[in-house]
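Hi,

I'm pasting everything inline rather than attaching a file, because the server keeps stripping attachments. The sequence lines come first, and each chain or strand is labelled.
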Amino acid sequence: MEKYKVVVIGGGPAGLAAALESFKSLDDKKVLIIERDKFLGGILNQCIHPGFGLHYFKEELTGPEYAHRFIEQVIESQIEYLTETHVIDITPEKEIVAVNKKGLKRIKTDAIVFAMGCRERTRGAIMTPGTRPAGIFTAGQAQRFINIEGYRIGKKAVIVGSGDIGLIMARRLTLEGIEVKAVVEIMPYSTGLRRNIVQCLDDFGIPLLLSHKVVKIHGKYRVEGVTIAKVDSQLQEIPSTERFIECDTVLFSVGLIPENELSKKAGVVLDSKTGGPVVDNTFSTSQKGIFACGNVLHVHDLVDNVTKEAQTAGRYAAIYSQYSELFENNIHINIVAKEGIRYVVPQKLNKNFVQPFVLRFRVDNFYKDAVVTISNAGKILIEIKKSILTPGEMEGIEISQKILSQLEFSNDIVVSLQNI
Amino acid sequence: MSRIYDVAVIGAGVVGMSILRELTRYRLKVCSLEKMEDVAEGASKANSAIVHAGYDPIEGTQKARFNVEGNNIFADICNELDVEYKIIGSLVVAFDDHEINVLEELLQRGKRNGVKGLEIKSQEWVFANEPNLSRNIKAALFAPYSGITNPYKLTVALFENAIQNGADVIFGFEVCKIEKDGDYFVVHSTDSRFIKTRVLINCAGVYADEISKLAGAKLFKIYPRRGQYYILDKPEKMPVTRVIFQVPTEKGKGILVAPTVDGNVLIGPNSEYIDDKDDTATTQKGLDEVFEKARKVLPNLSKRDVITIFSGIRATPDTHDFIIEEDEDVKNFINVAGIESPGLTASLAIGRYIAGLVSRKLNAKKNLNFNPYREDIKRFSKLSNEERERMIKLYPSFGNIVCRCELVSEYEIVEAIKRGARTIDGIKRRTRAGMGRCQGGFCLPRVMDILSRELKIDKTQITKFGKNSYILTEKRWED
Ligand SMILES: Cc1cc2nc3c(=O)[nH]c(=O)nc-3n(C[C@H](O)[C@H](O)[C@H](O)COP(=O)(O)OP(=O)(O)OC[C@H]3O[C@@H](n4cnc5c(N)ncnc54)[C@H](O)[C@@H]3O)c2cc1C
Ligand SMILES: Cc1cc2nc3c(=O)[nH]c(=O)nc-3n(C[C@H](O)[C@H](O)[C@H](O)COP(=O)(O)OP(=O)(O)OC[C@H]3O[C@@H](n4cnc5c(N)ncnc54)[C@H](O)[C@@H]3O)c2cc1C
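And the predicted assembly:
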C-alpha cells in the first residue's frame, strides 16, 4: 500500500493551498492531492469572471487565472496528484479508498486534509412547486455548459436567488444573449455584494425583485414560464400578488451545502449550522489527523479567504504527520455563537496551540450599525463597530497573541452582536 | 412503415410491459406502441412503489383478485428479472376508536380476499417496533407481506426481458386512429406510421378511455387523480422500517411514509381530481397537505432532508374497478384500463392473465426459447471493493464515477444506453445518476457527454425525456 505524510482530498483552491503549505512544512515531502475531475482547480475553472485574488494577490484575476497560480506551484514542487480519481471511503484508521479507471487504490497516510468543496442546493431542496420540464438548472450547471462547453441554455431566463453567484450568472447570461427577465429573491435584501448588484444587474437593467418567490414552474417539455408572488415577513406568499413571467429557463442559485459525505463516513462530527466539520484553530476535525478547509468546512464568498484558511490547515496537517504527539491530550475551549451570530469557525480553540488566528463568522440577519463583541469569562475582549452586516458576507476578526494572553481557559469564548 | 403483428399493446407502462413480456412466452409476434421515448413515462414512474398485501379492495373485484395474485408472484418475478423487492410489512395506524373499527373491517376484508398473516397490533407493539411513530397512535393493522419495489426499474426490466425474448417496442408512436381491415386492426400514430395487429390491448393509462373510444369499444371515463410526494435524502437510520399507512378514506389509501428500496424516505401521496390528464405539477397546497398529514404519524419529520418533490396521476375509472376484459362488441380488442392503485402490485398478475387469454384466443404455441431471466446492470454502489476491482480490470469505465451522490460509474451509464436509454431521465431511472442529493447538479453535463458520445449525436439533440425537452439550445463555439 502506498504511504503518504499528507493526503489532500479535492484539488480546488483549498486543496491546492493546503497541499503546498504541507509540502513546505514537511521534511519527507510525501504529499498527494486526489481530485475527481479531469483538472485541478475545482469550481474556479468555470468561474471565468474577474473578482478573484483582490485580497491575496492584490490584483483582480479570473477564477482559472487564480487557480493557475497555485497549480503551477504544485507542478513545480512536483507534488503528486491524481485526477479523475474519486475518493469513495475513509476508514476511521485514516485509510483512504479511491477509485479510478486503473482500479481501486488503498492509501495510507499520517494526515488527511478534506477540501472537497460544496454542492448546490436545488429546486427540489427548496421545494418549488410546478412541473418538472427541461430548462431548470443550477447556477453551477449553467456555468459549466456556458463557460466550459460553449452552449447556450435558453433564450429567456429567470434567476432564483440573488447571492453573488445568482448576480454573476445574471450578467453572464445577458452577455451570452439570453434575456434575464428578473432575479427573484425571497429575502427583503440581496445577500450579494453591493458591487455585484451594480455591475451585474443595474448596468444591464435587470430587475431585482426582493421579497418575491417563484411559486410555480410551468411547462410540459421545456419551461414555459414561472409564476412569482410577493412574500410577507414570514416568507409566505401574499395572495393575489401572483404574476406570470414567460421564460424558457429557470436558474436556481439558492445556496451551497458543504460536501461532507466522506466526512460522515470517517466519523467526523459536523456542525449543523455550517454543514461542515467542527474544527479547532488548527483546522483539526473531531477525528485525529483529519483536517478540513475551504467550502467543505463552511461556504466562503471569497476564494482569498479559502486560500489563507487552507494554508493554515495544510501547515497543521504537516505538523500532525510529523509530531502527532503534540495533538495528544488536546484540551479545547468552545467558541460559541450567540445573539445575532449564525455560526463561527473555528468552533474551538486548542490549548496546545494557542496561536493567533482569524475567527470567521456570519451574522443571522441584515444589521445596520451594530457591534460585534468577543468576550470570555464575562469580559469583553474585542468590540468592533460595523455600519452594515449581512448574512451574505463572511466576517473575520483577528485573534491576536495579545487577546489570547488575556483568555481564561476555563470559560467559553462568546461571539455576539448588539445593535447600537 | 408497416408491420404486422399478432398482438400489439398500447402503452409501455408497467402493465403494458408485463403483458408484453408474458406474451413472449408464446410464439407470437408482439409489440408495444408507446407515445413517449421510453418506458415508464406515465403512472409507472411516479407512484408509491408499494406492493400491497390486498386488504383494501372490496372482495370479488378485479382489484382484489389481481392485487392478491400479484402480491403472491411478485417475489418470484422480481427474482427472475433481478429487480429490487423487499417484503418489509406495513402498518395501517389508527388514532381513535372509529379508526380502530376500520382496522377491524380491513382485517376481515383482507381475510376474505385471501391475504395471509394480517393482525391488529397493540399500541405497545407499534412503539416497540416503530419507535419514531406518534404517541397518539392507538393500534395498527399489520400486514407482514406488504413490500416495496422500484416501479420504473421493474418496468425497464420487463421491457428488457420482453425485447430479449423477441418483442418490439415502438417509441414515439402516439396512437390516434384505429381502423379495422379484415381480421386486423390498423393502428395509426400521429406521425403517420401504422402497424397491423390481430389483437389489440389497451394499456394507455389515463388515456385508456380515449383509446377504447378510438377502437369503437366500450365507453367509460377515466378521471385523472393526482398524488404529490416528497423524497427525503438517505437517512443514517430509517425513521420507519415498515410502510406506514393511515386509515383509508373514500379518496384512497391516504398519506404514507415508507422507506424506498434505494434507501430514501418517501412521503405521499394526497389525492385530488384534476382537469388535465398530463398536469403533473406539484402545488403548494398539495405539498403542504402531504407534509402535515405525514407529520401526524411521524412528528419528527423535517423538510430539511427533502431532495425532490414530484407527482403521479392515477387513472381512476368511473366503474370503480379495473376494467380488464375483451370488448363485447369489438372482438380481439382488450381493455386493461382504469388501472389505478394497486395497479403496480397487480401488474404482474394481470400480465399472466392477459397473455393466457390471448394465447388461447390465437391458439398460440409455447415459445420454447423463452428465457425468463434478465440480469440487472452491475452497480458500483452495490459491490464489495474486491468485486469492484475485478470489474474495473474488465471494464476500466467501471472505475470512473459519474454521479457522485449515488456512486454511479460510466460503465453503468453506457450499459443503460446499450439497453435502450435515450434521454437524461431514461438514464436516471435506470442508473440513479441524478437521483441523489444534488439532483444531477454534478453529473448532468457528464451524463450528456456520454450520451452524445455513445449515440453519436450533438448535445443540443439530447432531451430530458423526449419531444421538446431539450436541455441545451445552441452550440456557441467549438472546442
Ligand atoms: C459562480 C461562482 C462565483 C464565484 N465568484 C467568486 C468571486 O468573484 N471571487 C471569489 O473570491 N470567489 C468566488 N467564488 C467562490 C470560490 O470559487 C470558492 O469559495 C472556492 O472555489 C472554494 O474552494 P474549494 O477548494 O473549497 O472548493 P472547490 O473549488 O469546489 O474544490 C473542491 C474540489 O474537490 C473535489 N472533490 C470533491 N469530492 C471529492 C472526492 N470524493 N474525491 C476527489 N475529489 C473530490 C472536487 O471535484 C473539486 O475540484 C465563486 C464561486 C462560484 C460558484
Ligand atoms: C400517485 C399514485 C400512487 C400509486 N401507488 C401505488 C402503489 O403503491 N402500489 C401499487 O400497486 N400501485 C400504485 N399505483 C398505481 C400504479 O402506479 C399504476 O396502476 C400503474 O403504474 C399503471 O400502469 P399502466 O401501465 O397501466 O399505466 P402507465 O404507467 O400510465 O402507462 C400508460 C402508458 O400509455 C402511454 N400512452 C397513453 N396514451 C397513448 C397513446 N395514445 N399512444 C401510445 N401510448 C400512449 C403513456 O405514455 C404511458 O407510457 C399508484 C399510482 C399513482 C398515480
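Chain A touches chain B through 50 residues (CB under 8 Å).

If the labels don't parse on your end, tell me and I'll reformat.
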